[in-house]
Write a structure and sequence with these properties.
Elements: E1 7-14, E2 17-31, E3 39-43, H1 47-56, E4 65-68, E5 73-77, E6 84-96, H2 112-121, E7 133-139, E8 142-150, E9 154-159, E10 166-174, E11 177-181, E12 184-188, E13 194-199, E14 205-210, E15 217-223, E16 228-233, E17 238-246, E18 249-257, E19 263-270, E20 273-278, E21 283-290, E22 293-301, E23 308-313, E24 318-323, E25 327-332
Antiparallel strand pairs: 1-2, 2-6, 3-5, 4-5, 4-6, 7-8, 8-9, 9-10, 11-12, 12-13, 13-14, 15-16, 16-17, 17-18, 19-20, 20-21, 21-22, 23-24, 24-25
Length: 334
C-alpha cells in the first residue's frame, strides 16, 4: 500500500531575509526503533516558537527535520532514523529544514536467526525493583523513558531503557495496566472498571474513564490519530472501544465480544488491523475492521505450557509474544 503526500512550503522571515522550508501537513516522522538519540524534544512550544528557536539558538545545519506535533511538542532530528514511518496526525507538521528527504525506511535485523542468536548471547542489564513487575510501556514519541507497574499494587516506576537507571518512582495505586501516550499515563487497578489519566511528567491527576465492561483491564491502545481508544478486558472476553473527544472526555463506541477466554494484550498493525493475545489458552487472534464491522479469527494456537501475556509487532512484521515465566516467542507473518 502506498500513500501520496503533498509537499507545501513556508517562508520564515528572519530580519530582512526569508527562508523557505518544505513541509507535509497533518503528518509527523516517527522512528520505529525504541531509542532514537538523534531527537531533541521541546514541550509546550508552538511550531513558530520551534522554528525561531532553530535559528536563534542553533545553527540551521544542526537539524535536518522538525516535527511540530498537535499537542505543542516539537521534535528536532539531527539525522533521519534509518527505520521510520510517517504517521497521520491532524494539526501536526513535518518540516524538512535542509530541504533533504529521508531514504526509504529499512527493517532492523531482518535475519531472524541472527537476531535470536544475538539476544541469546547478550549480557543482560537488570534493574532491581521492590515489586514483581506486571506491566511495561513507553510512549513511542518519548522512547527514553519506560514505565513499569507491579503484578500487585505498586508505584509507577520510570527508568531509562538504554542503561536501566532509575528516572523516578511515583506513589500511585496501580497494578498490571500502564499505557504512556501523548505525554499522559493511563493506569488501572485489577478488578475496578476505571481508567485513571495523569500527566506523564508531573503526575497531576486529570480525570478518569468508567464503564461497566472495563473489568480486569489489561491493555489500552489508541488508533485513528488518537480519536479511538481500545481497551482489552480479561474476564468478559472483550475489547471496548471509546471515542476520544479530549484528554478527559470519552464516550462509549462499541463492545467487541471475542469467543476466547482471558483476553489480554493488543498489538496495533494499523488503524484497521490488530492482534490480540489471550492469557490462559495462549492464543493470538487477528481483528480486522472492514465495512464498519470488526471481524476476528484465530491465528495462532500456542502449545507452550505457560500463561500467555502481551505481544507486539516489530517493523519487520514479526509478532513477539511473551509466554509468562518461559520465553518470548516470535512469529513471522507474511
Amino acid at each position: 500500500m502506498y500513500t501520496t503526500y503533498i509537499f507545501l512550503s513556508i517562508i520564515l522571515i528572519i530580519g530582512t531575509s526569508g527562508i523557505s522550508f518544505p513541509y507535509i501537513q497533518d503528518v509527523y516522522l516517527q522512528s520505529t526503533r525504541t531509542s532514537n538519540p538523534n531527537v531533541t524534544t521541546y514541550f509546550n512550544s508552538t511550531c513558530q516558537d520551534c522554528l525561531c528557536e532553530e535559528f536563534i539558538t542553533y545553527n540551521r545545519m544542526n537539524f535536518i527535520a522538525l516535527n511540530c506535533l498537535s499537542n505543542e511538542t516539537c521534535q528536532f532530528f539531527s539525522n533521519f532514523p534509518s527505520s521510520y514511518q510517517l504517521t497521520s496526525s491532524n494539526g501536526s507538521r513535518l518540516y524538512f529544514l535542509q530541504s533533504i528527504l529521508p531514504n526509504d525506511s529499512s527493517c532492523c535485523m531482518p535475519n531472524i536467526t541472527e537476531l535470536l542468536s544475538r539476544l541469546k548471547n547478550t549480557i543482560a542489564i537488570t534493574i532491581d525493583l521492590t515489586f514483581q513487575p506486571g506491566g511495561l510501556n513507553y510512549d513511542p514519541n518519548i522512547p527514553s523513558e519506560v514505565a513499569v507497574v507491579g503484578w500487585g499494587s505498586s508505584p509507577l516506576f520510570w527508568f531509562d531503557p538504554q542503561n536501566m537507571t532509575t528516572i523516578r518512582s511515583v506513589t500511585n495505586n496501580v497494578m498490571l495496566t500502564i499505557t504512556s501516550y501523548n505525554n499522559h499515563t493511563f493506569t488501572a487497578v485489577n478488578g475496578i472498571p476505571t481508567i485513571h489519566i495523569r500527566d506523564r511528567q508531573t503526575n497531576t491527576y486529570l480525570g478518569n474513564i468508567s464503564y461497566p465492561t472495563l473489568t480486569q483491564i489489561r491493555k489500552i491502545i489508541f488508533i485513528n490519530d488518537r480519536k479511538t481508544m481500545i481497551v482489552s478486558t480479561q474476564d468478559n472476553r472483550s475489547l471496548t472501544l471509546f471515542n476520544v473527544h479530549s484528554l478527559t472526555n470519552y464516550t462509549f463506541q462499541r463492545f467487541i465480544e471475542l469467543p476466547y477466554s482471558s483476553i489480554h494484550g493488543i498489538a496495533k498493525v494499523n488503524d484497521t488491523f490488530l492482534y490480540v493475545s489471550t492469557w490462559v489458552n495462549k492464543y493470538i487472534i487477528s481483528c480486522k475492521y472492514e465495512n464498519s464491522i470488526w471481524t476476528h479469527r484465530l491465528l495462532v494456537n500456542n502449545s507452550i505450557t505457560a500463561w500467555g501475556s502481551h505481544l507486539t509487532v516489530d517493523e519487520c512484521g514479526r509478532i513477539w509474544f511473551i509466554n509468562n515465566l518461559v520465553c518470548v516467542s516470535t512469529i513471522r507473518m507474511v
